[in-house]
Automatic annotation (TrEMBL):
It comes from Fodinibius sediminis. The keyword 4Fe-4S applies. It comes from the Bacteria. It holds the Pfam family Complex1_51K. It is an enzyme of class 7 (translocase). InterPro entries: ComplexI_51kDa_subunit, NADH-UbQ_OxRdtase_51kDa_CS, NADH-UbQ_OxRdtase_suF, Nuo51_FMN-bd, Nuo51_FMN-bd_sf, Nuop51_4Fe4S-bd, Nuop51_4Fe4S-bd_sf, Soluble_ligand-bd. It catalyses: a quinone + NADH + 5 H(+)(in) = a quinol + NAD(+) + 4 H(+)(out). Its EC number is 7.1.1.-. PANTHER family: NADH DEHYDROGENASE [UBIQUINONE] FLAVOPROTEIN 1, MITOCHONDRIAL, NADH-UBIQUINONE OXIDOREDUCTASE FLAVOPROTEIN 1 NDUFV1. GO terms for biological process: cellular respiration. This is NADH-quinone oxidoreductase subunit F.
Length: 429
């Protein structure tokens, strides 16, 4: 649990006016990590950079929390094929809206991180994939990329150090499935965003069949911090096993929703009551979805002493996900909430796998029945059974992401679901 958070100074998005402009970024030490690496490639060999990032244990901020440096080390030795870094800014899961702030307020820290990652993996081309609804942020990033080309940080012979790296910004058309890494690769190739069967994994066979690594925007924004300050320093921020700064996206029934940067491991209570100004209208907390709608909901009585890091949330029965916290007050209708979440996943299923295509449809349909007062108790068991038929049986994790909220919300708020069913039986009778 982080005690001294009030004195924390943001690292990913410092409070510096116009930091999105390259002059201001450079005045504030911007691109110094890239210079450090490229100016001394003997000290900072590609392997050294990867090892430093691995030792720092930057946990992927796209949801799965995988060690970024370790992922980079899965890239095969360079051969005559092109190599790619695909940066995931699709950010489509309800409750998740933090990469947007990096694009808006500090795009160069992300570009710098992506360049260092590209250097470490001998990548020559970087793609950034952004959700289509973020068109304003696409333009902000494009402007930053243009500035970086003009200053010699991108393109041929970067900083005169014999390294060539290009970066292309592209955007989707608003499909959540294009955030799944292989769905994103398909979309980047100009095809329908159908996730691919793995193996082969993208490091072996990614974009156009070539070695590719996929990282989230916030993950890459952490990289310059590690190069400038070292893995040990990075490890000293945050919680045991979950280091570094985190962009917490807090939404729902709080007085001050927004994106707030603090170390990993902040107490849920501090985040809700101090940082986000407490519950609207002085109401009581009922529940929290900690990391985007695919992460299991927790009841207020499960949150005592819980902090926002993977170990604490696992022990409490949930996951860190993207740290997109959805706060719900005592008036929240959990049946309504769950139906709304299930509607989203049904709508976003790409339809390739039967358990997902049919399962998400069934979940939504049965929940709508319960929501409309036409459900029976046995429907709850049917819903739980459908979730077990979906989990772990599909090409990608969207089916799991759809199944978990249903299972946990029903199990953790069973009374509420039963009451709705019973009421309906009376009403019908
Ligand atoms: C259905 C689905 C949607 C996803 N959407 C995103 C997304 O919008 N952004 C993201 O970074 N990761 C998303 N992911 C996770 C990515 O597949 C991948 O794990 C991540 O981009 C890797 O980056 P990281 O290791 O830096 O976190 C999604 C996964 C699934 C299954
Ligand atoms: S699990 Fe769902 S979203 Fe993922 S590939 Fe299968 S049908 Fe498509």
């Amino acid at each position: 649990m982080i005690e001294d958070w009030k004195s924390y100074e943001p690292l990913l998005i410092p409070d510096i006016p116009n930091l999105h402009k390259i002059d201001v970024y450079e005045e504030n030490d911007g691109y110094s990590a890239l210079r450090t690496v490229l100016n001394d490639q003997e000290k900072w060999s590609r392997t050294d950079v990867t090892n430093e990032v691995k030792a720092a244990n930057i946990r992927g901020r796209g949801g799965a929390g995988f060690n970024a440096g370790l992922k980079w080390s899965f890239m095969p030795e360079p051969d005559d094929r092109p190599r790619y870094l695909a940066c995931n800014g699709d950010e489509s899961e309800p409750g998740t809206f933090k990469d947007r702030n990096i694009f808006e307020f500090n795009p160069h820290i992300f570009i710098e991180g992506a360049l260092i990652a590209a250097y470490a993996m001998s990548v020559d081309t970087i793609y950034v994939y952004i959700r289509g609804e973020y068109i304003d942020w696409v333009h902000i990033l494009e402007q930053a990329v243009e500035e970086a080309y003009d200053r010699g940080y991108l393109g041929k012979d970067i900083l005169g150090k014999g390294i060539d790296i290009d970066l292309h910004v592209t955007y989707g058309a608003g499909a959540y499935i294009c955030g799944e890494e292989t769905g994103m690769l398909e979309s980047l190739e100009g095809k329908r965003g159908y996730p691919r069967v793995k193996p082969p994994f993208p490091a072996q066979k990614g974009l156009w069949g070539n070695p590719t690594t996929i990282n989230n925007i916030e993950t890459l924004a952490n990289v310059p911090l590690v190069i400038n300050n070292g893995a040990e320093w990075y490890q000293s921020i945050g919680a045991e096993g979950h280091n570094g700064p985190v962009l917490y996206g807090i939404s729902g029934h709080v007085n001050k929703p927004g994106v707030y940067e603090y170390p990993a491991g902040m107490s849920v209570e501090d985040l809700i009551y101090e940082v986000a100004g407490g519950i609207r209208g002085g109401k009581k907390l009922k529940a929290l979805i900690p990391g985007g709608t695919s992460t299991p909901v927790l009841r207020a009585d499960q949150l005592e002493g819980v902090s926002m890091d993977s170990n604490s949330l696992r022990d409490a029965g949930s996951m860190m996900g993207t740290a997109g916290m959805v706060v719900m007050d005592e008036d929240t209708d959990m049946v309504d909430l769950l139906w709304r979440i299930s509607h989203f996943f049904h709508h976003e299923s790409c339809g390739q796998c039967t358990p997902c295509r049919e399962g998400t449809g069934w979940l939504e349909k049965v929940l709508l029945k319960i929501k409309n007062g036409e459900g029976e108790i046995k429907d709850l068991d049917l819903l739980l059974d459908v979730t077990t038929q979906m989990e772990g049986r599909t090409i990608c994790a969207l089916a799991d992401a759809a199944a978990w909220p249903v299972r946990h919300t029903i199990n953790r708020f069973r009374d509420e679901f039963e009451a709705r069913c019973k009421k309906s039986v009376h009403a019908v009778a």
